[in-house]
Amino acid sequence: MLADKDFIRYSRQILLPECGEAGQQKLMQSRVAVIGVGGLGCQVAQLLAAAGIGELWLFDHDMVELSNLPRQLLFSEADIGQSKARVAADLLSRRYGTAVRALGKLDDASINLLDDIHWVVDCSDNFATRHLLASFCYTQQKTLVSGAIAAFEGLLFLQAASGASSVKSGCYHCLFPKDTESAKRCASQGVLGSAVAAIAALQAQMIQQLILDMPLPSGRLQRFDFRHFRWHEARVPADPHCAVCATRGETDPC
């Protein structure tokens, strides 16, 4: 049973038939990892903490910079030079009462920390981290919601835990093979903070719906053209030569 205070606090979510009191308890018992506490990660983490997610793990080794402030809304000028993950964790735990762990860089040495996590949100800004994370999540059967944005293009991709559907679809590596390179980054292409917030909100929405057992299509690339306000969606077929999912020889999706 929810405490009276929690019932009042989350009353608008509980009103949803798809959530209810049981669903709110699921959210409060969930543990979610957010990889990258930049523009996307800051807002994903705040939305999930505000929704009552029980525990958040924040991975980032960068420090707060002045140029971060227009889109990384957990930070202020007083935080410049401090750890993004630590500042975000302190603020979120104080404001929302969520248990938040501040962790460093996600790499080969730290990836196994995700063994105790089922829900993972990729808000990183480089393919090396994205590929490492996607491969780990696939082999360990963890649900991954990946988001990216640069200039006026936002991307979303859900890689569901294996066995979540009967239709074979591609994994993240099928979509972006390991040798993929891209010059599209906020630091070089620019971005509006409101566009970042839009993609982050969708990532947070996807994670919450998945926790609430509301199925979403896996293996589909969803791209939003902010310049012309148009959605584009494409199914990602499984690559028979994929170095990650093809080696499993499974008929289940990624």
Task: Describe it.
This is HesA/MoeB/ThiF family protein. Residues 10-243 form the THIF-type NAD/FAD binding fold domain. Pfam families: ThiF. By secondary structure, the protein is α/β, with parallel strands linked by helices. The chain has a single domain (4-248), classed as 3-Layer(aba) Sandwich (Rossmann fold), CATH 3.40.50.720. 33% of the residues lie in helices and 18% in strands. The protein is built from 9 helices and 8 strands. It has helices at residues 4-9, 11-14, 20-28, 39-50, 84-96, 127-139, 172-175, 186-189, 193-211, and strands at 31-35, 55-59, 99-103, 119-122, 143-150, 153-159, 220-225, 230-235. The chain has an 8-stranded mixed beta sheet, with helices on both faces. Residues 163-167 and 249-254 have low confidence and may be disordered.
List the helices and strands and how they pair.
Blueprint (H helix, E strand, L loop, with lengths): L3 H6 L1 H4 L5 H9 L2 E5 L3 H12 L4 E5 L24 H13 L2 E5 L15 E4 L4 H13 L3 E8 L2 E7 L12 H4 L10 H4 L3 H19 L8 E6 L4 E6 L19
Parallel strand pairs: 1-2, 1-4, 2-3, 4-5
Antiparallel strand pairs: 5-6, 6-7, 7-8
Helix pairs in contact: 4-5, 4-9
Organism: Shewanella jiangmenensis
Pfam family, one: ThiF
Protein name: HesA/MoeB/ThiF family protein
